[in-house]
Amino acid sequence: MVLEALGYGCRDSGLVFSLCAHLLACVVPVWRHGSEAQKQRYLPGLCDGSMIGAHAITEPGSGSDTFAMRTRAEPDGDGWRINGSKTFISNGPIADVAVVFAVTDPDKGFHGGLTAFLVERGMPGFSSGQKFEKLGLRTSPVGELVFEELRVPAEAVLGRVGGGAAVFATAMDWERCLLVASHIGTMERLLETSIAYARTRQQFGQAIGKFQAVAHKIADMKVQLEASRLLTYRAAWRLDHLRNASLDAAMAKLATSESLLRASLDAVQIHGGYGYMVEYEVERALRDAVGSTLYSGTSEMQRNIIARWLGL
Ligand SMILES: Cc1cc2nc3c(=O)[nH]c(=O)nc-3n(C[C@H](O)[C@H](O)[C@H](O)COP(=O)(O)OP(=O)(O)OC[C@H]3O[C@@H](n4cnc5c(N)ncnc54)[C@H](O)[C@@H]3O)c2cc1C
């Protein structure tokens, strides 16, 4: 409910996105998988905002196919030595701590061969690489993380050695359910803005909302908003009450992100030429919406997950 309200009230979707990356993909994994010592060390700062968190799995050569990653962690004395790099990491350029995934046993595959580590800025061998400019969400910093002979203690392992898949699944379930809650709020705002414009903008002697072509677009926005809201609420309920919410999280993510993109495009169309101009802010909503079908797993990958749950 809070994220929905934030998506509605905050026009800076980049800020909301950065908050979600911090909260859902860093704070939640530490809360759900961290040792008591890790919780004591990180959660107070992450919760009061004095520390910024990130979640790093994507690499230049491995996006959807996460286990094709090249980052390796090898035992080194009583700790680990990490080498590799990550890309497209939200909050990466400013993060104080990152949940970083590395292969610890290539033979075991994704389940058993992947481990999550908590890596802190300032550790020798850990640096931020290139920072990227992007189409939308421009206030959310995104960049590379580089690990060169980075030595971390055994206590940096989040969860258990080989348990990275479980940590990743927790982050994705929470992110897919709750990041899209903010999109519901944004869609509500776009709907209200579009209705207000359609009622006041006059062409051919009447409000454009009286043209069926415009009114039907707005009717579809309403239906997609309410359908996305129900899917998201159900996914959030399941996350709260059941052990596995992955199918519902994928359905909520797919439906809501695609609805957000369609609603943003419709809002621009309803505003005509004014919608294309920066002043009206709907063009910003459209640019911000494009990423939603890419991050946290693309729409194609959500469909793959849903199909797998259906036995295909
Ligand atoms: C704004 C933004 C923020 C991000 N933040 C983070 C972050 O904080 N941390 C992080 O780790 N990553 C982050 N990412 C990375 C994001 O998770 C990846 O971009 C995404 O998973 C896709 O990977 P890719 O870009 O390598 O595309 P690819 O995997 O190369 O995909 C390219 C195309 O091929 C399709 N495709 C690939 N495999 C299949 C398949 N099996 N079936 C059907 N189609 C397929 C994809 O759907 C896509 O259309 C972010 C990305 C963006 C855009």
Structure description:
The chain is an alpha+beta fold and 312 residues long. The protein starts with a helix and ends with a helix. It has 2 domains: 149 residues, Butyryl-CoA Dehydrogenase, subunit A, domain 2 (Beta Barrel); 143 residues, Butyryl-CoA Dehydrogenase, subunit A, domain 3 (Up-down Bundle), CATH 1.20.140.10. α2 packs antiparallel against α3, α2 runs antiparallel to α5 and α6 packs antiparallel against α7. It has a 4-stranded mixed sheet. Strands 2-3-7-6 form a 4-stranded antiparallel sheet, with helices on one face. Helix content is 52%, strand content 19%. Flavin-adenine dinucleotide binds next to β1, β3 and α10.
Write the layout of secondary structure elements.
Elements: H1 2-9, H2 13-33, H3 36-48, E1 53-56, E2 72-76, E3 79-90, E4 97-103, H4 110-113, E5 114-120, E6 126-131, E7 142-153, E8 157-158, H5 164-200, E9 202-203, E10 206-207, H6 212-241, H7 246-270, H8 272-276, H9 282-290, H10 299-309
Parallel strand pairs: 1-4
Antiparallel strand pairs: 2-3, 3-7, 4-5, 5-8, 6-7, 9-10
Helix pairs in contact: 1-5, 2-3, 2-5, 5-6, 5-7, 6-7, 7-9, 7-10
Adjacency order of strands in the biggest sheet:
1-4-5-8
- CATH arch. level architecture of the largest domain: Beta Barrel
Count of discrete structural domains: 2
- Structural class, judged by helices and strands? alpha+beta
The portion of residues assigned to helices is 40-55%
Per DSSP, what share of the residues sits in E-state strands of 2 or more residues? 15-25%
Low-confidence stretches: none
User: N- to C-terminal separation?
Assistant: 34 Å
Specify the number of helices: 10
The largest sheet, given as strand count, sense and whether it forms a barrel, is: 4 strands, mixed
Quick one: CATH superfamily of the largest domain?
Answer: Butyryl-CoA Dehydrogenase, subunit A, domain 2
Q: What ligand species are in this complex?
A: flavin-adenine dinucleotide
Round the Cα radius of gyration to an integer and report it: 21 Å
The backbone outline, from C-alpha atoms, is elongated
CATH fold-type name of the largest domain: Butyryl-CoA Dehydrogenase, subunit A, domain 2
Q: Element order, helices and strands?
A: HHHEEEEHEEEEHEEHHHHH
Q: Assembly state here?
A: single chain
Number of strands: 10
The first-level CATH class of the largest domain is given as Mainly Beta
Average pLDDT figure: 97
